[in-house]
Design a protein that fits this description.
By secondary structure, this protein is mostly helical. It has helices spanning 3-7, 17-29, 33-45, 52-67, 71-84, 88-100, 104-116, 124-136, 140-152, 160-172, 176-188, 192-204, 208-220, 228-237, 245-253, 259-269, 272-276. The longest helix has 16 residues, at 52-67.
């Protein structure tokens, strides 16, 4: 059994986007449409572009699997409909059927729709029931959604103990949004070294605001020694998410760095050509 067949259910923390797409392509080549589609969605969450056609090509096969009452196919087809913002009532129904079959993705995504009133009447109380079921089954995004609802008091009273509990649970599973929020919470408490660790973990999974936060801390020596290489690395990495704000900060740091340091930052970020533009002119 291929590794991707085992692992797509969990958030692939830190895996490069190209590897996520390769896993999808390998699964598709084996006609494993459910693994392929879920790997493509992992890549989309990381900011990969141009995958709509590949996902659409899976739909006929998914429809056949849905007709055979395959719960994971129902959840994936519903995810396609939700992503397209098309036939949202059917998406909610398919997520519900998948949830009833014990598919955690169905529980989580129906909870999302119920929280926000997408395709269904808003019902954050039932959403929290579904999020908790999925989280207790090990779904990190469900745990993060549950923590957010506890923070805002959606579906019940605000509960900061439960917020912190489920936030930590989600962060431990590598959910980048949770890692970034946990970094914010630790920064407020002055636990700068721990905060930086969580920002970096989120950054490695493509979270642009966490990249910016980590870069500034490396630049200023907050929670670490001043490290211009790591600072420029994460400022440049923000380009992977279409965010150029870090480039302006990298330009300010570059004159204080050696050429070797600049090139190393480019290598680490995967943005070697942009790093070369920061080199001093001869």
């Amino acid at each position: 059994m291929g590794e991707d067949m085992l692992d797509w259910h969990s958030f692939p923390a830190g895996l490069p986007t190209a590897e996520l797409i390769k896993n999808a392509e390998d699964a598709e080549a084996r006609s494993d449409l459910i693994s392929a589609g879920n790997w493509y969605f992992h890549a989309k969450r990381r900011g990969a572009m141009g995958l709509e056609g590949r996902i659409a090509a899976l739909v006929p096969g998914l429809e056949l699997a849905v007709a055979q009452s395959n719960g994971e196919a129902k959840a994936l087809l519903a995810a396609v409909l939700l992503d397209r913002k098309y036939d949202l009532a059917r998406a909610a129904r398919l997520f519900g059927e998948a949830a009833d079959a014990g598919v955690v993705e169905g529980m989580r995504e129906l909870g999302f729709m119920l929280t926000n009133g997408i395709g269904v009447n808003r019902d954050p109380v039932q959403a929290n029931v579904l999020f908790r079921q999925a989280a207790e089954a090990g779904d990190g995004y469900a745990a993060f959604n549950l923590s957010v609802n506890y923070y805002h008091g959606a579906g019940g009273a605000r509960n900061f103990r439960e917020f912190s509990r489920w936030l930590q649970f989600a962060a431990n599973l590598g959910i980048p949004e949770a890692c970034a929020v946990l970094g914010d919470q630790l920064a407020k408490k002055g636990r700068d070294g721990e905060s930086l660790d969580w920002y970096v973990k989120a950054a490695k999974s493509g979270h642009a605001p966490a990249m910016f936060s980590a870069a500034r801390r490396y630049r200023d020596g907050v929670g670490c020694e001043v490290d211009p290489v790591q600072a420029v690395r994460w400022f440049l990495a923000m380009l992977d998410r279409g965010n150029g704000d870090g480039v302006h900060e990298a330009i300010k740091i570059a004159p204080l760095m050696t050429p070797d340091q600049i090139l190393e930052a480019g290598r680490l970020s995967g943005r070697g050509s942009e790093a070369e533009l920061l080199l001093p002119s001869s």
